[in-house]
Amino acid sequence: MSSVLAPYWEFAKKAFAREATYRFEVFTEMGSLVLRVYLLRCLWTALYAQNAAPFNLPLHSMITYATVALLMSLVLEIDGTRLIREKLRDGTIATDLMKPIVVPFYFFSDGVGRTLLYAVLVVPTLLVALLLVHVDVPAPATLGVFALSFLIAYCVNFVLNFCMNSIAFWTLETFALQLIVRWISDLLSGQIIPLTFFPGLIGRTLFALPFAAIYSTPLLIYVGITPRDAWGAALTVQLAWLAVFGTLAFVIWQAASRRIVVQGG
After folding, report:
1. 68-102 pLDDT per residue, tens
2. What is the 3-state secondary structure (H, E, C) of the chain?
3. Among 106, 69, 60, 66, residue whose Cα is nearest residue 86
4. Which residues of 103-120 are buried (b: 16+ CB within 10 A; e: fewer)?
5. What is the pLDDT of residues 239-264, one digit of tens each?
6. Cα–Cα nearest to 217, from 183, 187, 191
7. Lesser CB count within 10 Å: N end or C end of the chain?
8. 260 near 94, Cβ under 8 Å?
9. Is residue 127 in some structural domain?
10. Which pLDDT score is estimated for 107?
């Protein structure tokens, strides 16, 4: 590993070790996930029995969709950028800015370290879930494109959270804002209900929002709603949102860094 990336790899390992020390919480999270998978199966089975079914998505695919979305949320809900708020409150952000590191990469690596632990939990949770529900496993090519789309979604989610938490340089607190955006995202990203469930103009509007790039795009690839000939376009839209929020994050961080320097003299 190059000397440039070595410090960030160490940050990730420390974050992994830090999260792993809370073993009781880890096993509690696993048990909670298994229970939620079972409840989702019961919920969608009941809804399909009442003909409340999304377009072109049979019951077994819907259960697969809901289960994979739940496992994705285990990773995507980790927010390493919340450290920005904490460091602003205790003043250590000024010290970090003096270190020979790129501070946003530090936040990213800390989040990756925490994410790796929960990503490891996905495997045993998925094995247990397979005993409770029928989860489809797509062809290797589809699985590979899903993995790529999920990786892009992870980056989009990171830069979106980074933009929101960086506002704390001016407000000192962003919890309420982030909570509102998280609620909106959960509803409009396709995490809870597939966006194909929404008809006409409403559906097209939801697909045009950046939240769809986080959950809906990889999930629709996984269950086969997005055909092979549309994979490139779907990934391109994700990359476009990553570029938009990445640029916005860069601009906000540059302004925030200058603000710290001014305040600190």
Report:
1. 888 888 788 777 677 777 777 777 777 777 777 77
2. CCCCCHHHHHHHHHHHHHHHCCHHHHHHHHHHHHHHHHHHHHHHHHHHHCCCCCCCCCHHHHHHHHHHHHHHHHHHCCCCCHHHHHHHHHCCHHHHHHCCCCHHHHHHHHHHHHHHHHHHHHHHHHHHHHHHCCCCCCCHHHHHHHHHHHHHHHHHHHHHHHHHHHCHHHHCCCHHHHHHHHHHHHHHCCCCCCHHHCCHHHHHHHHHCHHHHCCHHHHHHHHCCCCHHHHHHHHHHHHHHHHHHHHHHHHHHHHHHHHHHHHHC
3. 106
4. bbebbbbbbbbbbbbbee
5. 999 999 999 988 988 887 776 644 44
6. 191
7. C
8. yes
9. yes
10. 78
What the block records as the tokens of 99 is 């270190």
**Around Cβ 51, how many Cβ atoms within 10 Å?**
6
Query: Domain tally for the chain?
Result: 1
Does residue 133 fall inside a structural domain? yes
Tokens 């990553």 correspond to 242
Distance in angstroms (rounded) separating the CA atoms of residues 128 and 89: 41
Paired tokens of 44: 């969608």
Whether 195 is covered by a domain: the verdict is yes
Q: Can you give the length of the chain in residues? A: 265
Integer Cα distance of 74 and 201 in angstroms: 31
User: What domain range includes position 36?
Assistant: 6-264
- Does residue 145 belong to any structural domain of this protein? yes
pLDDT averaged over the chain? Answer: 80
- Residue 105: its pLDDT value, please? 77
Share of the chain above pLDDT 90, in %: 19
